[in-house]
Write a structure and sequence with these properties.
The complex is a heterodimer of chains A (295) and B (279).
Chain A (H helix, E strand, L loop, with lengths): L1 H33 L20 H8 L1 H32 L6 H9 L6 H11 L6 H9 L16 H25 L4 H9 L4 H12 L1 H16 L3 H6 L11 H11 L3 H31 L1
Helix pairs in contact in A: 1-13, 3-4, 3-7, 3-10, 7-10, 10-13, 12-13
Chain B lengths: L1 H33 L4 H8 L13 H9 L2 H32 L5 H11 L8 H10 L17 H12 L4 H8 L4 H12 L1 H16 L3 H6 L8 H10 L5 H21 L1 H11 L4
Helix pairs in contact in B: 1-13, 3-13, 4-7, 4-10, 5-7, 7-10, 8-9, 10-14, 12-13
Classes of the chains: A mainly alpha (295), B mainly alpha (279).
Chain lengths: 295, 279
């Protein structure tokens, strides 16, 4: 009986396991191996692939493009993570008031999430147009001409911020929904008891809402951080890493080096670094969540 | 007190309306601009309120997109790719999840841990080695190279697994007594009960793959196999930009998804909520 059950289990698992092995585990392990070689995408018969030790990683340390990409990813995360998480929480609390029509507002706030990033990037490229774009016109109008037109995507100082703004616009509805689910699990009695004790809204927010949302907040912050490090689509469509590497990112560089320049070995070294960052962020989440459990 | 409540309500509505404007204006500008037949007009209106007014209504841009970008071909490719990822993926992933949730066998715990550990691997960290592999096999510039690598998905398996372990076993036990095979039980007893999780996985897989750009950029450049995202990226990259057509193209990618979203709004929200952790 036990053996028949085991056989059935492996039969049920076989298709998924084969696919996961071939298209996830093998390339994942391969990345670590290729990172120590000078493998090219299209092999040159006269120049066989060689083991090059740590050379790729030594180059990484001196690669100005990579350093800029890494810096940009951190800067992007430093802006997007707090802004997007806080805005998402505020929006979740607003639509959670259950006022008439709040379902309609929730539906609107979430709608950019189902809009493909490629499309979002194309629209915002038009909106950001320095001379005729809607955003400069709008900022000029509400400031009575005080805000000068900004060359959003063409200026090294604003290009990454411009991408960050549209990324928040597209993604914040997702985190709002996660926060909303968290908010709805908080028992109403907690607020009632606090009200009887004479607590005001701010006190209730600080001593009931925030602590109850601890795990949700950790999840949102961590997953947004990982998303920030995966930044690619917007850059590919809008700026191609420019101007002067101002919007260069690690994943964009991986694609350019591995696919554009066919340098699979070096791109694999980039990939390894990228994965280690994502892993570190994810482990941070587990650590925080575990601390919660022991309390 | 009542007056204060009225003021707070008014404030909430003001905030909610401002936010709604913020989330709607780009999509409205896209739709309105796509209807204006003249690119110079689009740009002139862009820096005023006229960006929101369909001063002219013409479908010329839409017609041009059909002629210039091979829109239907890209749409067909996207539907085929995402459709097969979702349909085959639902089957393969729920099958292993059911095996893991219901059968007792040596290595079960280890297998579950491995699947959960695999969730952390982002696609970006395997893209280049995978490109090397599929290039060796001569799979570049095909439809299947865009679908097959994504059929098995650790996160979908995990969602199915979580669902199956909390489904009561009574019904399945009745079926065992009736002499049904294990596959038959999975197929005709368990799957019909699993509609909520099937909807969730479908929506999550659809959203992830409909907008995918990195992988098709690397493996699908030709008009015959490129999906909508790559067609858009290539069309957008052409100078000078035909803004009317770009907006019409963007609208045609977006509107079908928006309609499905509006019809199944509740399901979308629930799927996303269940992809998070329990609070």
């Amino acid at each position: 009986m036990q053996r028949r059950e085991a056989r059935a289990a492996w039969t049920f698992s076989l298709p998924a396991l084969l696919l996961l092995t071939a298209f996830l585990i093998v390339p994942f392990v391969l990345a670590f191996a290729l990172a120590f070689t000078d493998q090219r995408l299209i092999p040159n018969p006269r120049l066989p692939t060689e083991f090059v030790g740590l050379r790729n990683f030594e180059r990484l340390l001196q690669d100005a493009t990579f350093q800029r990409a890494l810096l940009n990813n951190f800067a992007f995360a430093a802006f997007v993570v707090p802004v997007q998480s806080a805005l998402a929480l505020a929006m979740a609390m607003l639509v959670n008031q259950r006022l008439r029509g709040s379902l309609v507002f929730r539906t609107i706030y979430f709608s950019p999430v189902v809009t493909t990033m490629v499309v979002v990037s194309a629209i915002w490229f038009l909106l950001y147009n320095p001379t005729e774009g809607f955003i400069n016109a709008f900022l000029g109008a509400i400031s009575f001409g005080l805000i000068e037109p900004i060359a959003w995507l063409q200026d090294t100082r604003s290009a990454l911020a411009a991408i960050a703004i549209l990324s928040v616009w597209q993604g914040v509805g997702f985190q709002m929904v996660i926060f909303l689910a968290g908010l709805q699990e908080i028992a109403e009695q907690l607020y009632e008891a606090a009200r009887i004790d004479g607590a005001n809204r701010l006190q209730m927010f600080r001593s009931i809402t925030l602590p109850s949302l601890r795990n949700t907040t950790i999840f949102v912050v961590i997953s947004t951080t990982i998303l920030a490090f995966r930044l690619y689509d917007q850059v590919k469509i809008m700026t191609q890493g420019g101007p002067q590497n101002a919007t260069q990112t690690v994943v964009y560089q991986i694609e350019r080096v591995g696919f554009g320049q066919l340098r699979v070995g070096y791109a694999s070294a980039l990939t390894v670094v990228f994965f280690l960052i994502v892993l570190a962020v994810a482990l941070l989440q587990r650590r925080f969540l575990r601390e919660e459990r022991t309390v | 007190m009542a007056r204060r409540a009225a003021w707070t309500h008014a404030l909430y509505y003001l905030l909610m309306t401002l936010l709604a404007g913020f989330f709607l204006f780009p999509v409205v500008i896209m739709l309105v601009s796509s209807l204006k037949p003249d690119d110079a007009l689009i740009m002139r209106h862009m820096s005023s309120g006229l960006a929101f007014v369909p001063t002219e209504v013409s479908l010329q841009n839409y017609r041009d997109v059909f002629d210039n970008v091979a829109f239907l071909k890209a749409l067909r490719n996207s539907v085929l790719i995402v459709g097969s990822i979702v349909v085959i993926g639902l089957f393969v992933n729920s099958l292993i999840a059911y095996g893991l949730a219901r059968f007792r066998f040596r290595g079960r715990g280890l297998l579950v841990s491995v699947v959960i550990a695999l969730i952390i691997i982002p696609f970006e960290s395997i893209a280049v080695p995978l490109l090397l592999i599929v290039n060796r096999f001569g799979w570049l510039d095909t439809l299947y190279v865009q679908a097959i690598p994504f059929i098995a998905d650790a996160f979908s398996i995990f969602l199915f697994y979580q669902f199956f372990i909390q489904v009561p076993r009574d019904l399945e036990e009745a079926a065992v007594v009736d002499g049904a095979s294990r596959f038959r039980i999975y197929w005709s007893v368990v799957l019909p009960l699993s509609r909520p999780i099937i909807a969730t996985v479908t929506i999550l897989l659809f959203l992830r793959h409909w907008g995918q750009l990195l992988w098709p950029v690397m493996v699908a450049r030709s008009v015959e196999v490129r999906p909508l995202t790559v067609a858009m990226q290539q069309f957008f990259g052409q100078q000078p930009r035909e803004w009317g057509q770009i907006m019409a193209f963007a609208a045609m990618i977006t509107i079908p998804v928006l309609i499905v979203y509006l019809l199944f709004n509740r399901w979308f929200v629930q799927s996303i909520a269940s992809s998070g952790v329990k609070g």
